[in-house]
Write a structure and sequence with these properties.
The protein is of the alpha+beta class. The chain has 15 helices and eleven strands. The protein has a four-stranded antiparallel beta sheet with strand order 3-8-10-11. It has a three-stranded mixed beta sheet with strand order 1-2-9. A hairpin with a 5-residue loop joins strand 1 and strand 2. The longest helix is centred in the middle third of the chain and has 68 residues. The chain is rod-shaped.
Length: 556
């Protein structure tokens, strides 16, 4: 009895596993949106629940914001190769002008002391002849450096600059890396969507099972009420003991408590489903899918898995015939156990396409990104060439008012002299930067990038082994769950037949109340085990689809 009462906790505990943290737009599943019924109730099928979660769950919206950031990052990288134009203006009050030392003695030279005229020079000059005079110079004075201030107190300038990148190896590689980064962001979003699909599917199946079991418990209470009424009437007629009636009342009380617990667990399962969908808890929902529609065909699923019935007693057929020894085996040699692969990997039976797993595709993108980062570090040794140009004006004056007068080349003072205070300038040129030596910084950057790339390459083998293990584990778990489901279905059929025959015997007066009590208890336990097996199969099917990379494709 305690084991029976604890079964609903097992379902909910398995459903709560879907509360694991999310990882991080791929294409959104297509289909009709969820339907609002009367009173604002939302009708949800499993595809509609998945579609709603993928479109509105806050964690996915945050992941898509990161994807938009990647798109903006691509635009930022592209903008670096476009022309760059800047306009700048500056106004300064040189309240204390900077001075420089100037040695004026280096410019003046020795002083002129005059020249001497002789009588001969005078006579030659009077006769009309050319006379060459020889000046006499004194000693140059030894003056020290003199401080001198250049410029005026107020100065201003404004200019427009232009630059265009002509060649930069890092820029071209950066464009490729930005696109790869955007692709990586999309795959991370798809990974987050797959996780949401898994969590919503498990929560939906948990709610279906809980709802179906709650309806079954209601029918069991009604049937037990009927048996209790008949037993009580038989007791009043003197053909039954009061102990039989008390046993049935105890059984009914326990069943009602179990029904109340199942009701609360069903409500909790619905709350979990709303959480996984990102749906407000106040929004009423009704599930339109039935549990019968969700149950998979065990035979078709086994055929898809490549697993036979194994002849292990599953189903009414019981144990099958022992397999014949393989050809060429020695007489008396033990035959391999049915269903085992003799230690060979599962992937040898059917080649597994690792590209179906988003984790493998994401790692490939990360590898491409690491390779581009290595190329970018190496390209740091290449020269950079840019075209530059600038044009502007600079001016100065003794006062702010005079500075903003903006006098050009045609301006004249009252005395007719030019009094221009703003002067234009312009230049065009090429800027070439050649890295020569950076203290081995680039060398260590390249080394780090190469190690990061090698680390990702080592991760491929680890990921392949992990995917192989998940494939084998999900396959085995699903096959075992199918076997258990077949077994529990047979047990449920047998328990129902036993309970039916026991009630017939009791009504005919040839059976005891204890037999009815025991049969009803076994039937309820078989029902509980059957629904638990159904949930295990559905969860194992979701895990199997995720392991093979088919979960999101089926959801779409």
């Amino acid at each position: 009895m305690n084991k029976t009462l604890q079964r609903p906790r097992r379902w909910l505990g398995a459903a709560l596993l879907g509360l694991a943290p999310l990882a991080l737009p791929a294409q959104t599943p297509q289909g009709a949106p969820p339907v609002l019924g009367t009173g604002g109730t939302m009708a949800l099928s499993l595809p509609q629940a998945i579609r709603y979660a993928v479109q509105t769950k806050s964690s996915l919206l945050a992941t898509r914001l990161a994807e938009q950031t990647a798109v903006a990052r691509v635009g930022e990288i592209k903008a670096q190769g476009l022309p760059q134009v800047n306009v700048a203006a500056n106004l300064a009050d040189n309240f204390k002008l900077q001075k420089s030392l100037v040695d004026f003695s280096a410019f003046g030279g020795p002083p002129l002391n005059g020249t001497t005229l002789t009588q001969r020079d005078i006579a030659a000059a009077q006769s009309g002849q050319a006379v060459t005079l020889s000046p006499a110079y004194g000693v140059a004075p030894a003056t020290g450096p003199t401080p001198l201030a250049f410029g005026l107190q107020y100065a201003g300038n404004t200019a427009a600059s232009f630059s265009q990148q002509l060649f930069d190896g890092s820029y071209l590689i950066g464009l490729k890396a930005a696109k790869v980064y955007q692709e990586l962001s999309k795959k991370q979003t798809q990974q987050a969507e797959i996780d949401v699909v898994e969590q919503v599917s498990k929560a939906y199946y948990s709610t279906l099972v809980a709802r179906s079991r709650l309806a079954l418990l209601a029918r069991n209470v009604q049937r037990l009420d009927t048996v209790l009424y008949q037993t009580n009437q038989t007791f009043k007629a003197g053909f039954a003991e009061k102990l039989d009636v008390d046993r049935l009342r105890v059984q009914r009380n326990n069943l009602v408590v179990e029904q109340q617990k199942a009701q609360r667990l069903t409500e909790l399962s619905i709350a979990l489903l709303k959480f996984q969908m990102g749906l407000p808890q106040a929004q009423p929902v009704v599930l339109t899918d039935s549990l019968n529609a969700a149950i998979v065909d065990a035979g078709a699923l086994r055929q898809r898995l490549g697993a036979a019935n194994f002849g292990t007693g599953s189903g009414p057929g019981g144990l099958g015939a022992l397999p014949a020894p393989p050809a060429g085996a020695a007489p008396g040699a033990p035959a391999p156990a049915p269903g085992l692969n003799n230690g060979q990997p599962v992937q040898t039976d059917a080649a597994f396409n690792y590209n179906n797993r988003i984790e493998f595709s994401t790692l490939q993108t990360q590898q491409a990104l690491a390779g581009l980062d290595l190329r970018n570090r190496t390209a740091g040794a290449y020269p950079r060439l840019s075209l530059t140009a600038a044009y502007g004006f600079t001016g100065s004056a003794k006062s702010v008012t005079d500075l903003f007068a903006f006098r050009g080349p045609s301006s004249r003072a009252t005395n007719g002299f030019p009094n221009q205070n703003w002067f234009g300038f312009g230049n065009v040129g090429l800027a070439l930067t050649v890295p020569v030596f950076d203290g081995f910084r680039r060398h260590y950057q390249v080394q780090q990038a190469r190690i990061a790339q090698q680390t990702i390459e080592r991760g491929f083998e680890t990921l392949r082994q992990s995917i192989d293990l998940q494939d084998a584990q999900s396959r085995t778990t699903l096959i075992n769950a199918l076997d258990v489901l077949d077994n529990q279905q047979d047990n449920l059929t047998l328990a129902a037949d036993v309970a039916r025959v026991t009630r017939i015997k009791f009504n005919a007066g040839v059976g005891s109340n204890i037999e009815v009590f025991t049969a009803e208890t076994s039937l309820r336990e078989a029902q509980t085990n059957y629904y638990a097996a159904i949930y295990d199969v559905l969860v194992a099917k979701v895990d199997r689809d995720k392991a093979t990379g088919e979960l999101y494709q089926q959801a779409k």
